[in-house]
Amino acid sequence: MENYTCAIIDDEDYAISTLTEHINQIPELKLVKSFTDPLQALAGISPTDNIDILFIDVDMPNISGIELAAKLKDKIKLTVFTTAYSQYAIDAFGIHADDYLVKPIGKIKFIDSIRHLIDKRLVKSIYHEKDILFIKTAEKNRTLKLYISDLLFIEASKNYVRLNMADQKHDMKITMGRIERELANTKLVRVHRSFILNLDKIEQILGNSVRITGNNIIPIGKEYKETVMNYAEKKLIRSGRSS
């Protein structure tokens, strides 16, 4: 599981306590810094802190949270404004805030909003360019470089997916639907609710399954069969008399 660092800037202690409790409800989040003095925060947050999410109040003494966030934008990845005054939302999103939570912030609202933010803006487990694929594995969160042409198939397995090659396997914490979308426009195609297949590895079509490189048998779901047959049709060499 990937972890994300957080910081809080709010001039009210109870607000920091509430946010701290909410943050502790999300295992991926780790609070590393908090400030009640916005000017101390300006001096106390540096790029080396690698802050993923900054929770910042809007209405504070000496400097507004919106102005402070603008000064800190190169030091943090995402900004979430927290305030009792919803009218600040226009100003907040004017500096490209990533979210805006109105106090009092309930636990469920916080968890739903921040999980959505993590999934949308922070989680990027797979990158590909042409035949090159970079993945973050479930084992020690390593980033590996693979080649799409080396992949045989991807299989759903409990809470992760397994990337299978001829000589190695790697597990990833990602859904089949998401990895399917990330690998769109490649030769890796969904052929079953539990399998994504490299079409170039098909060696034999066996009715409702295919045999691929390495003598692996992969089932073909009814709704995906047309995709496989269309691919085979394009590659088919027909017999007949030569002129």
Describe this structure in words.
The chain has 243 residues and is of the alpha/beta class. The chain folds into two domains: 4-122, Rossmann fold (3-Layer(aba) Sandwich), CATH 3.40.50.2300; 126-235, OB fold (Dihydrolipoamide Acetyltransferase, E2P). 27% of the residues lie in helices and 35% in strands. It has seven helices and 16 strands. The strands form four sheets. A five-stranded parallel sheet has the order 2-1-3-4-5, sandwiched between helices. Strands 11-10-9-13-12 form a five-stranded antiparallel sheet, covered by helices on one side. Strands 6-7-8 form a three-stranded antiparallel sheet, with no helix packed on it. Strand 1 (4-9), helix 1 and strand 2 (29-35) form a beta-alpha-beta unit. 28% of the residues are buried. The model has no long low-confidence stretch (mean pLDDT 85).
CA radius of gyration is 24 Å
- For this structure, what is the CATH class of the largest domain? Alpha Beta
CATH topology of the largest domain, by name, is Rossmann fold
Regions with pLDDT < 50 over 5+ consecutive residues? none
Query: Describe the biggest sheet?
Result: 5 strands, parallel
Let me know the average pLDDT: 85
The proportion of residues forming helix, as a percent range, comes to 25-40%
- N-to-C order of helices and strands: EHEHEHEHEHEEEEEEHEEEEEH
When the domains are counted, the total is 2
Widest sheet, order of strands: 2-1-3-4-5
Oligomeric organization of the protein chains = single chain
